[in-house]
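In the previous chapter we treated chains in isolation. Here, by contrast, the input contains three separate entities that must be folded as one system, with a combined length of 866 residues.
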Amino acid sequence: MNGTRMFQSAPAVLVASVALCLPVLAPDFMLFEFSIAVSYGIAILGLNLLLGFSGQICLAQGALFGIGAYTTAIFNVNFGMDPIVTLPFAAIVTSLIGVLIGLPALRLQGLQLAIVTFGVASAFPQLLLKMDSITGGVTGLAIDQPMAPRWFPGSQELWLYGLSLICAAASVFMLSRLLRGDTGRLLRALRDNPLVAESLGVNLTKGRLAAFAASSALAGLGGGLFCILNGFISPQSFLPMKSIDILIGGIVGGITSMAGAFIGAVFIVFVPGWTTAINPALGGLIYGLCLIAMMMVARQGIAGLPIGRGLQALKHLFNKKGLSRVSGAVPGQLGGE
Amino acid sequence: MVLFFQLLIDGLASGAIYASLALALVLIFRATRIVNFGQGEMATLSAYCAWQLCEWGVPIALSLLIVGAASFLLGVLVFRAVIKPVSKASTETVVVVTLGLFVFFQALCLWLWGADQRAFPAMFPGGGWDILGVRVTASTLGILLVLLCLAATMGAIFRFTRLGLAMRASAYSSEKSLLVGIRVERMLMLGWGFAATTGFIAAALVGPRLFLSPTMMMPILLYALASATLGGWDSPLGALVGGLIVGVAESLGATFLPFIGADLRVVIPIAVTLVILLVRPVGLFGSSTVVKV
Amino acid sequence: MNILTVRDLSAGYGATDVLHKVNFTVEQGTIVALLGANGAGKTTILRALSGLLPSRGVVEFGGTDLRQCSPARRVELGLAHIPQGRGTFGDFSVEENLAAGAFTIRDKKQIAEDMERWYSVFPRLAERRRQQAGSLSGGEQQMLALARALMSRPKLLMCDEPSLGLAPAITEQIFEIFKSLNDEHGMTLLIVEQNADLTLQFAHTAYVMEAGDITVSGLASELLSNEAVQQSYLGV
């Protein structure tokens, strides 16, 4: 799938318009949850880049998300930096660490990478506890949330929601530029056939590392944003399940769709909320079934399903009408091939 | 020196548990070239079932037998319902599906039995022996014996029976096996069944050491993945040796490496995995076929 | 009497058909050669016959319609297929390969007897019983593949490019064995080959394939002497 087309596709327009209309429709507390969803969505974008575009499966995206969150928190708590200013640092630091994880990945194949990154995800909370002098250990870190400026007419939640949307827009913009450019072409070549790509002179190492760097940067940005929105983080927020949650979001939304990343994020934020009221295990059951069912029936994810297909069917209908008119005017010409 | 031997013995005991789960993973990998991230959680479900039978008054030996057989069916069922339809799909797809199993079975246990921890009945007597100051408990010895029996049974099945030959052949090449008249799909199904039972044995060994909880096998899975990678993904013997090595490395490392200590012991299996993947990706006993995955 | 009758057989990979309604028969007790250039569809025919590929059309083998049969069932019925590139289990010992070949035979005594019988035909294999199949030479592996296929007591033996990668002398040796199997045991053979000249010397009848269809058929001796056929189809 081509980056430009992805960005202009119907689900993208729909997701963007819903996101813009939300402040009018949703109460403030829901705006907060949507903001959290946006932060996950950014991390999922990163995962999609790895999984959907370079076919590498990383199960440590939750840990990288956590590294971004801790970077923001530590820069704020220890150096008194404005949390918003820390966001680029969160992206850069996480990107560097992601490349460190990605380095062995250069030699690893799909399954091995999954195993190693699963290990990283499992060890991350323990590492946070061990480095309690800077991470605050079990108690975690609380940051000074950026307050809405006095000229801002809306609520604090709206201000933070706006901030999330700006981060999301920036991520989508950067990612689609990346995918449209040389790196994107390189990644697609690598995904479709690494052997051929390499024999044609495509630099496998460079491509994979670039994918890891960009993917981790997005995870870090999402994590930093999450930290700002939540105002408080602790190892509890970054258990191994977080990585699997992010993967679920990616799969449910569709791993080659940018709009899908945010649909998937909304799914992983709201589904457990709704289901735990009925039974705490229900969310997990739904998650598990979704992962399995999506892989068996709908690999394109939600973004590839109802809206996209409906529009395609409509387009198909119009095209057919157009065609039949032409062939009616010049009989036999189209069928002559 | 006494401390060293004590740690060695304790490490072997936990290593035996990692080894049995690793063996389950390897059985599945050999049969279907899939790493089943849901293996541990399937085993947890089995362990809960055994516990439930005991609660209902079934003697422990009998309930272990019943659940052992039921686990086999669970493995077969999972293969038929979930794995077979995606068997020709890409690696990423299959990994996601097995993660789906992981999430699903964990949630299922949580749903059926809640988050409260349950005490799994002890299978071995409580006593032990002091040998030159090293404490060897009956449970440690029991666990090692179970592993030994498991290994011997598996080895005998693979080496000396028609079924074992067919399973090995199917693992080597499904097409060549079809051409000699082996019903390959049935063999893969049996592979999943055996693996589920083996996984259950691992969970039953863990049960009395920890408490039963829906997440109890998660850390064990990590160690088992490391053990299988260390031993070589297509080698059952490798899984056993790998498991024991990882167990001992963990036990010694957590005590003798101050920067790791008890809280960071989880880093040890990751380090083992990374080192072996970079130095010898096929593992200690693996053959070169695995790298092509 | 025909042991194998194929009518309107179509098969292929994915959406495209490689075979287009192929018709041919194999008479009991003969050696039949299936010739043709690379990509003509010879291997596809064998894969469709042994059930590795889904196919359409009628395949009758010894009076049984094979369409409903699984690959395993076809072996039980007496159809053996030695695929291109030997089809031995590389990390099994020679003996284990033979045991795997006898998978469809339940009688242990019969298996032991057959094993000794083929060891006496292929003494090189007897010497290397415990050796890994993967460590054998190309010729030895082809012999092992042949012995392995014979362990299932086939009525029809299909062999895909037996000469591939073998020295001419060894190829000739393999064909001599085919001939003696046919002479002494009345075995029916269907041999796919690119090496037309050699194969035609051993075969009774032959079919020539071109682009997924059989274009020429006849007695092997006729094809061998017919210069037009030689030039246009066999590229000799």
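Chain B touches chain A through 46 residues (CB under 8 Å). DSSP finds eleven helices and two strands in chain B. Compare these points with the single-chain example from earlier in the chapter.
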